[in-house]
Specification:
With 425 residues, the protein is α/β, with parallel strands linked by helices. The chain folds into 3 domains: 161 residues, 3-Layer(aba) Sandwich (Adenylosuccinate Synthetase, Chain A, domain 1); 91 residues, Adenylosuccinate Synthetase, subunit A, domain 2, CATH 1.10.300; 158 residues, Adenylosuccinate Synthetase, subunit A, domain 3 (Adenylosuccinate Synthetase, Chain A, domain 3), CATH 3.90.170.10. The protein has 13 helices and 20 strands. The protein has a 10-stranded mixed β-sheet, with helices on both faces. Strands 14, 16, 17 and 18 form a 4-stranded mixed β-sheet that branches. Helix 3 runs parallel beside helix 6. The longest helix is centred in the middle third of the chain and has 21 residues. The chain binds guanosine-5'-diphosphate, 6-O-phosphoryl inosine monophosphate and magnesium ion (MG). Guanosine-5'-diphosphate (GDP) binds next to helix 1 and strand 3.
């Protein structure tokens, strides 16, 4: 087990790498688990004691004693959070203010953000394929200093004042895009009611984390989305609106970078992407169908089928650089079982040259033709394997090859959605 104080976990690909599962597995060892960016565009699956929890906002450590925090760099839809808290309560998991803290400065996703997200996407001639949760427009308002914050919705007067200030420009924007301007002032009572309920949850996340670290406690930062969806370094414009890489955890949680002990990347044994944008190793054939079917590759948040392809080393190299991973968790190895030949993309052909690192621009990445190294697959179902030695030789060779190519230690290998289906390399 990783024995350190401040660990950051991020997705090394395009999201849905299995972060929820890995965070749940590690959470027992930590005192605090904190979400630092994104919103309910995230869908993190935790499978425990036969139950499947799909978490969008509550950090994936919820089944343990850890204190959970939602940091000020996130964008939060309070209605979705309330539903999630209720879903957990129905399953016997009480998310009290002693358990969950929400930063006073967390940006609130308003109904107009969701309306604008949908309207904007419907007008795009080249779609992004957003999750339609209002994420981009909530971050626009954060950067534009027009956000409504968590603390605002707990105070009826302050909320009304802020909305009076903001609603006219939202009405104009919605109207201009052909939507119903009344959305700008809709659900106000609902937000105030939720604000009243969430008031006891408000905290100063940076202060809590820094105090915990000074006290020798362990903190786990749970990333959402994936490195190539990063707003700065991802495959623009097909990205999300937050910084998804490890460095963002420090800035967003208000913790100095020298505090970081470990950065763990979660990476699938192949690659998937939901939404639009380049995916050089995409397999629109029976291999893609195998991965989608065996891997259950349908979006946790939107239910959309995920596009699937072979493991992409150039993209992995880039996310290793972007995050400075100290270790990796390789997930969904079981899904490759039953394929005769496995391919690993080791480079791309672009404009007559072979390159080993992704070109910076999305248009160029979309033109890249993968160069593959082939290795034999295995027939066996490995989902019951509990130690590395129990894997078929070809599965072990596949892992060794990835580790050797990526030059980062594979700390964990995952062969199924359950907690027991993970072992140390
Ligand atoms: P996240 O967004 O990174 O937390 O990932 P998601 O929860 O959206 O998607 C990962 C999916 O794969 C979930 O349905 C998990 O239960 C499942 N999963 C995680 N690890 C494994 C694994 O090793 N093998 C298989 N077959 N499924 C896994
Ligand atoms: P987790 O945390 C996979 C994708 C969307 C779309 C793009 C922009 O579960 O890994 P947005 O709604 O964020 O403006 O959409 O980003 N996307 C994700 N893909 N996993 C996610 O989260 C994602 N969150 C957003 O599909 O392509
Ligand atoms: Mg997901």
């Amino acid at each position: 087990m990783i024995d350190n104080m401040f660990t950051i976990i991020t997705g090394a690909q395009f999201g849905d790498e299995g972060k929820g599962k890995i965070v749940d597995m590690m959470a027992a060892e930590y005192d605090i688990v904190a979400r630092f960016q994104g919103g309910d565009n995230a869908g993190h699956t935790v499978v425990a004691e036969g139950k499947t929890y799909k978490l969008h906002l509550v950090p994936s450590g919820v089944l343990f004693d850890a204190r959970l925090l939602i940091g000020p760099g996130t964008v939060m839809n309070p209605g979705i959070l309330m539903k999630e808290i209720a879903m957990l309560a129905d399953n016997g998991v009480e998310v009290t203010p002693a358990k969950l803290g929400i930063d006073a400065k967390t940006s609130i996703i308003m109904p107009y953000h969701i309306a604008l997200d949908a309207l904007r996407e419907s007008k795009r001639t080249v779609k992004i394929g957003t999750t339609n949760r209002g994420i981009g427009f909530a971050y626009i308002d954060k950067v534009g200093r027009d956000e409504i914050q968590m603390a605002d919705i707990t105070d009826k007067k302050r909320f009304a004042k802020r909305l009076d200030e903001l609603a006219p420009q939202k009405e104009m924007a919605i109207k201009e895009m052909g939507g119903d301007p009344k959305i700008a002032r809709s659900q106000v009572d609902e937000y105030i009611e939720i604000g009243r309920k969430l008031r006891p949850y408000i905290t100063d996340v940076s202060r809590e984390i820094n105090l915990a670290l000074k006290d020798g406690k362990k903190v786990l930062a749970e990333g959402a989305q994936g490195s190539h969806l990063d707003i700065i370094h991802g495959t623009q414009k097909f990205v999300t609106s937050s910084s998804t890489v490890a460095g963002s955890a420090c800035a967003a949680l208000g913790v100095g970078p020298k505090r970081v002990d470990n950065v763990i990347g979660v990476i699938k044994a192949y690659i998937t992407r939901v939404g639009e944008g380049p995916l050089p190793t995409e397999q629109k054939n029976e291999v893609g169908e195998h991965l989608q079917k065996m891997g259950g590759e349908f979006g946790t948040t939107t239910g959309r089928p995920r596009r699937c392809g072979w493991f992409d080393l150039p993209l992995a190299k880039k996310s290793i650089d972007l995050n400075g991973y100290t270790g990796l968790a390789l997930t969904k190895l079981d899904v490759l079982g039953g394929l005769d030949v496995l391919k690993v993309c080791t480079g791309y052909e672009l404009d007559g040259s072979t390159i080993e690192y992704p070109p910076e621009l999305s248009d160029d990445l979309a033109r890249c033709k993968p160069v593959y190294r082939e290795i034999p697959g295995w027939e066996e179902d490995i989902s019951g394997v509990e130690v590395i030695g129990g894997l078929p030789d070809n599965a072990r060779e596949y892992i060794e090859l990835l580790e050797q190519l990526m030059k980062v230690k594979l700390e964990y290998i995952s062969v199924g959605p359950g907690k027991k289906q993970t072992f140390m390399k």
